[in-house]
């Protein structure tokens, strides 16, 4: 797929978008593993499903699967459905017909962050001060307790470890055939987001103190990047791990991790300044593009090679709460805090 951001005709024409309203905020969105379906997790407990092809007419009616708000949603790594977590303490497997099967029930707790590893079929979840692992057979293991609530989880590239963010840093747990003691990577403060680099060499976190922190796993060394006007709640690594994209700026912001890394270097900032600050960032799954959603409702797609960007959704005053690329990178899903569920076709 070619997003020709250098072509004025492409940049000045909004792509075809399906927008389906709902009665509750969208907390999370994801594509199914086969790319045919988009799931949206809503604040009223529903997981609503839409065809990934935005052109045919479609509705997204469903009964609430959760007894409270849906807090997280990912594509199921073992089937073509989805996995959702809610404030009812339940982890559910959602089929493409909307049917739900309970995987885990942690009554009285929230399951608010999820991660999946496609090769191993494993799912990680944050549950209070614990990190929960569900393997492809459905067997569960708990890791912790940590010193505070786990705010984010992610898998290493090979799926042999999980990282858990919490107050004063992160903890890395071995989950493979060889069990090793947990490793602590410390930095004072509250860490609110975590992403393992796509090459497995780094772990990045966003913090309550309006900065980001990155650790080199092998050497256990770290670096801090400051100067953000707001908390950095969304992080995304480029497919080749050369760039770490971050939210909370009015333009695309990318830290360089090729060569010697970003120490002593400013971030690359590119594209047209958007209306407001980016709330969500999502790197393309294979190419050098990146999508950003704003607190104003604007959505842009950027090309780090040409340093250009294009608006693909206009401002409407409703903050973008989630973004997800299709597996082939030809479509983008987005959700907003007023309940709009969007599928954007970027093929032109």
Q: What are its keywords?
A:
Methylamine Dehydrogenase, Chain H, single chain, 29 strands, 348 residues, 1% helix, mainly beta, 4-stranded antiparallel β-sheet, 6-stranded antiparallel β-sheet
Describe the structure.
- By secondary structure, the chain is an all-beta fold.
- It has a single domain (8-345), classed as 7 Propeller (Methylamine Dehydrogenase, Chain H).
- It is built from one helix and 29 strands.
- The protein has one helix at 8-11, and strands at residues 17-20, 26-31, 37-42, 47-51, 70-75, 82-86, 90-94, 100-105, 111-117, 122-127, 130-134, 140-143, 152-155, 161-174, 183-196, 202-207, 212-216, 221-225, 235-237, 243-246, 252-256, 268-270, 278-283, 289-294, 299-303, 308-313, 320-325, 331-336, 341-345.
- The strands form seven sheets. The chain has a six-stranded antiparallel β-sheet, with no helix packed on it. Strands 1-29-28-27 form a four-stranded antiparallel β-sheet, with no helix packed on it. A four-stranded antiparallel β-sheet has the order 5-6-7-8, with no helix packed on it.
- The chain is globular and about 55 Å long.
- The N and C termini lie close together (9 Å).
- The mean pLDDT is 92.
In short:
By secondary structure, the chain is mainly beta.
């Amino acid at each position: 797929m070619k997003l020709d951001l250098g072509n004025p005709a492409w940049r000045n024409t909004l792509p075809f978008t399906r927008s389906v309203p709902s009665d509750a905020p969208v907390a999370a969105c994801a594509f199914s593993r086969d790319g045919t379906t988009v799931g949206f997790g809503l604040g009223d407990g529903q997981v609503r499903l839409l065809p990934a092809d935005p052109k045919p007419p479609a509705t997204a009616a469903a009964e609430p699967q959760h007894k409270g708000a849906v807090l997280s949603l990912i594509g199921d790594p073992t089937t073509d459905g989805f996995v959702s977590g809610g404030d009812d303490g339940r982890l559910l497997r959602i089929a493409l017909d909307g049917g739900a099967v309970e995987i885990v029930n942690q009554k009285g707790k929230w399951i608010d962050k999820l991660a999946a590893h496609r090769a191993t079929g494993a799912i990680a979840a944050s549950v209070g001060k614990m990190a929960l692992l569900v393997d492809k057979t459905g067997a569960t293991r708990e890791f912790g307790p940590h010193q505070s609530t786990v705010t984010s989880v992610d898998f290493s590239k090979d799926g042999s470890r999980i990282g858990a963010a919490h107050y004063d840093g992160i903890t890395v747990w071995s989950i493979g055939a060889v069990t090793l003691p947990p490793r602590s990577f410390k930095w004072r403060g509250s860490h609110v987001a975590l992403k393992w680099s796509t090459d497995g060499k780094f772990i990045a976190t966003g913090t309550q103190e309006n900065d980001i922190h990155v650790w080199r796993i092998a050497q256990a060394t770290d670096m801090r990047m400051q100067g953000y006007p707001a908390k950095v709640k969304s992080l995304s690594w480029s497919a080749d791990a050369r760039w770490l994209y971050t939210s909370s700026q009015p333009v695309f912001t990318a830290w360089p991790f090729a060569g010697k890394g970003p120490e002593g270097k400013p971030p690359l900032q590119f594209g047209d300044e958007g209306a407001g600050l980016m709330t969500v960032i999502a790197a393309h799954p294979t190419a050098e593009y990146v999508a950003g959603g704003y607190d104003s409702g604007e959505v842009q797609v950027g090309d780090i090679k040409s340093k250009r960007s294009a608006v693909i959704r206009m401002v409407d005053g409703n903050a973008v709460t989630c973004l997800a690329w299709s597996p082939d990178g030809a479509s983008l899903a987005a959700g907003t805090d007023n309940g709009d569920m969007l599928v954007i076709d970027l093929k032109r």
